[in-house]
């Protein structure tokens, strides 16, 4: 019987074994399912879903992230604009300071060449502008201007004119470069532009017309400042008036290239490169045979050392040892027939240059007193009163 039970057990055990699923295989399926789920979760993260979060929450996070970076970008832009504004303000201040120093040097009644201290200050301002904005028109203009018409710095002036051709100071300096360099076409175009913009006013144009008319043929006119120099040259270039007169600006004499050009034309120049009262005296002495006429707008400090050799002719002083024999007749002819006397005639606003006609009128007054010519003496004195503001302006002469 015992054997029968053993045999029965041996037969039943294999059947039970085959009917139970293997544990190892079941665990593997669970692990694979879990792994599959993990892969899905990882793929979802790579597609922009953070940790399998709901879509609405994911979009909110993205929007918050985008807003943060936009705010940061705006803050950076604001900082940049603020820094740029500060730089521009500083640049403007430095340029203004440079202009004041240069203008101060131009107001000197003793010399056209800047004082050493003024030159050093201008050079320092130029360095500051270079550090702030080396490609700006302000730096390019200041660099050329500080060179006192040295055409070796011409490339900077070309750049300044290219960047800001409407600026009046740029136009003035650009003309000086072209005139000294001998580029007559560009010089004429620039003067025309300055006339259109009223940088060279009608008053200046008409006055310097009279200045050129006062000079004899093939003579030399020495000028001092902007108005008498640019006005005279405008009449020559644009109106072809008295092109026979050589205009020499004391200001342009600072340029080594301009001085070299004059030497090539037969002028004898002082050895000094400092253009001042002494330089003009030497220049006149060395070039007395050049028929020299000095504009009456030249400061008196320059004229006083030359007084014994200066005689009024129209709106100039002629440098000669003795006045020409025909001077009385020439003075009459200029006043009554040749000069336009703009700003002194009936219906015209009084010219700021009116007083410059006084030396000629004083000469004519003395002439008519000596001759006893009461009629012409009365006319001259009426004109003098008009200039001095003693009575209303009315037409004089024909």
Would you kindly provide a written description of the structure presented here, covering whatever features stand out?
There is one protein chain. This protein is mostly helical. The protein folds into three domains: 94-195; 200-322, no CATH class; 325-398, no CATH class. It has helices spanning 2-19, 23-46, 55-106, 116-132, 137-145, 154-163, 168-181, 184-196, 202-213, 226-239, 256-264, 277-286, 300-303, 327-338, 358-371, 374-387; strands at residues 220-223, 246-249, 292-295, 310-313, 316-319. Strands 2-1-3-5-4 form a five-stranded mixed sheet. Strand 1 (220-223), helix 10 (226-239) and strand 2 form a beta-alpha-beta unit. The longest helix is centred in the N-terminal third of the chain and has 52 residues, at 55-106. The protein is elongated, with a radius of gyration of 44 Å. Residues 1-53 and 393-398 have low confidence and may be disordered.
